[in-house]
Amino acid sequence: MRQAVTRAHNLDDIKDAYDQLASLPYADAHSIPLVEVRDGGYLAYY
């Protein structure tokens, strides 16, 4: 049976991607942009 993809799952993915990018030695963790084009920016807000 296929699992449903929820906003919580998507938010976890966004957090994981941010953490991965922020861990790079040449990345500025305070300057990583996030653009959300669905859900009215709901996930980008968090």
UniProtKB/TrEMBL annotation:
Keywords: Hydrolase. GO terms for molecular function: hydrolase activity. It comes from the Bacteria. This is Hydrolase or peptidase. The lineage of its organism: Bacteria, Pseudomonadati, Pseudomonadota, Gammaproteobacteria, Lysobacterales.
